[in-house]
Specification:
Elements: H1 2-29, E1 34-49, E2 56-70, H2 92-120, E3 122-125, H3 137-140, E4 148-153, E5 160-161, H4 166-178, E6 181-187, E7 195-200, H5 211-217, E8 228-231, H6 236-240, E9 247-251, E10 254-255, H7 259-268, E11 278-284, E12 287-293, E13 296-300, E14 303-307, E15 310-312, E16 318-321, H8 325-352, H9 363-376, H10 378-397, H11 404-417, H12 423-452
Antiparallel strand pairs: 1-2, 3-16, 4-5, 4-6, 6-7, 8-15, 9-10, 9-11, 11-12, 13-14
Cofactor: Zn(2+)
Membrane topology: Multi-pass membrane protein
GO molecular function: metallopeptidase activity
Length: 456
């Protein structure tokens, strides 16, 4: 729990700091006097001000946002000798630039993080896939265990080379939400014998890339060889004579191609009326042996599954994925654009009812994700930070009062009409925006709670 809190507060602090610094730096560049730069809202718990006339930097008690307070006639009297530093008296283009700078700073942070991660690189599972789920879309399309994904295309023409299994995730999500056709170029483990398959995501019947959709898609995970790992003392595996390092060749006369297939066969054994022994053929140090293995029946919830009480499957093959600096920058730009566009489309679909409002996440879900990413490592934590920065940038550009996007809409009206939005309209729009923000926060928090309770 402590790790989740620390990881969440750190991530939130970085995102808010970058966002507000965007407003602050452009305001200063435009000659606007900044009165206060605050991380958090509410009671001030720390402050620093170099001189009485300089910017006051503060840390406040509620770390769920921040603000940059500028000299402005609408918020108080402005001395005559400082009127040229007042925000509201600056040209329209400068006011718009100051407001837009916050979300832009978040996008720039995402680009830098994505690019840095691509440049640093890391070991990732090779895009060598295990057995597809029986009856799933992938199996019906002709995919099989041992297929290596060499390239993908969302339109069937613009192919993108694939180096690791992780690079498949985002195109799959995008194809599901668009209900488009995802084309894959497949080969064997050595990259030979290329062929093409097409996955028509419209057959899934949903635009939600959730667990149910992924199950119907049935795409295999990274290939793991059917090798036995650690064997629990006294369990069915030990009783049958299995040892760590044994490679399973056949079960009941059926050839075993990967660990996923073997695990599925063990689990499904509990569905048979009587717990009969399975006939296994294994390879041990160059010798082929025959063993009888009777999986134990375990009840999980309302399901009966088979277990042999041993680790099944070797670690997947990995490859170090690292890009040159110029390529890494392009990857950072591409990922930031793709995720920004996807986030914006998701908001639009929720608005017209094509996507579930359950997609909204609040602080509890984000804290859980931050804690899990921090446990895995710095690479995953920075990846999450980049994605959150994209989300914050898109959210702030939504044309809702109280958000940066709402203020930009005011300026668009002013630019087109030649006059600012009236105080009467501003007051009512701000009230409506405040209500909408409360509604979104309440819905996001409700989604968090139902996820935590397992009700989603």
């Amino acid at each position: 729990m402590l790790l989740e809190v620390v990881a969440f507060v750190l991530a939130l602090g970085v995102l808010i700091l970058v966002h507000e610094y965007g407003h602050f730096s452009v305001a200063r560049a435009c000659g606007v006097k900044v009165l206060r730069f605050s991380l958090g809202f509410g009671r001030v718990i720390w402050r620093r001000q170099r001189t009485a006339d300089s910017t006051e930097f503060t840390l406040s008690a509620l770390p769920l946002g921040g603000y940059v307070r500028m000299l402005d006639e609408r918020e108080g009297p402005v001395p005559a000798d400082q009127r040229d530093q007042a925000f509201n008296l600056k040209p329209l283009r400068q006011r718009a630039a100051i407001v837009a700078a916050g979300p832009v700073a978040n996008f720039l942070l995402a680009i830098v993080l994505f690019a840095s991660l691509a440049w640093m690189g890391q070991q990732e599972p090779l895009a060598l896939l295990g057995s597809p789920k029986p009856g799933g879309l992938a199996e019906r399309a002709g995919m099989r265990a041992g297929d290596r994904v060499m390239a993908i295309a969302l339109d069937g023409r613009s192919w993108r080379d694939i180096a690791s299994a992780a690079e498949l995730q985002w195109p799959v999500i995008e194809a599901i939400t668009e209900q488009s056709v995802l084309s894959l170029q497949l080969a064997d483990a050595n990259g030979h014998g290329r062929r093409e398959v097409r996955l028509d995501m419209a057959e899934l019947g949903t635009r939600e890339p959730d667990l149910a959709a992924m199950t119907r898609l049935g795409l295999g995970g990274p290939l793991r060889e059917p090798v036995i790992g650690e064997v629990a003392p006294g369990g069915p595996a030990e009783q049958a004579g299995l040892q760590a390092g044994d490679r399973v060749l056949e079960v009941d006369g059926r050839m075993v191609t990967d660990a996923a297939q073997l695990i599925a066969g063990i689990r499904a054994h509990a569905q048979t009326p009587a717990a009969q022994a399975q006939q296994w053929r294994i390879e041990r140090r160059g010798q082929v042996l025959s063993l009888e293995v009777t999986p134990a029946v375990v009840v999980e919830g309302e399901s009966r599954i088979g277990r042999i009480q041993a680790l099944v499957g070797s670690a997947p093959q990995t490859v170090r994925v690292r890009h040159a600096l110029d390529d890494a920058l392009l990857i950072g730009l591409r990922k930031t654009w793709e995720q920004s566009w996807m986030t914006l489309k998701t908001f639009g679909r929720m608005l017209i009812g094509q996507a579930s409002l359950k997609n909204l996440s609040g602080p509890i879900t984000i804290a859980d994700a931050a804690g899990q990413a921090a446990r895995v490592g710095l690479y995953q934590y920075l990846s999450l930070l980049a994605m959150l920065s994209v989300g914050l940038g898109v959210l702030n550009l939504l044309p809702l009062p109280m958000l940066d996007g709402g203020h930009l809409m005011y300026y668009l009206f002013e630019g087109l009409s030649g006059r600012p939005v009236s105080e009467w309209w501003l007051e009512r729009l701000q009230r409506a925006g405040f209500f909408l923000m409360l509604l979104m926060m309440a819905l996001a928090l409700s989604n968090d709670v139902t996820r935590k309770l397992g009700l989603h």
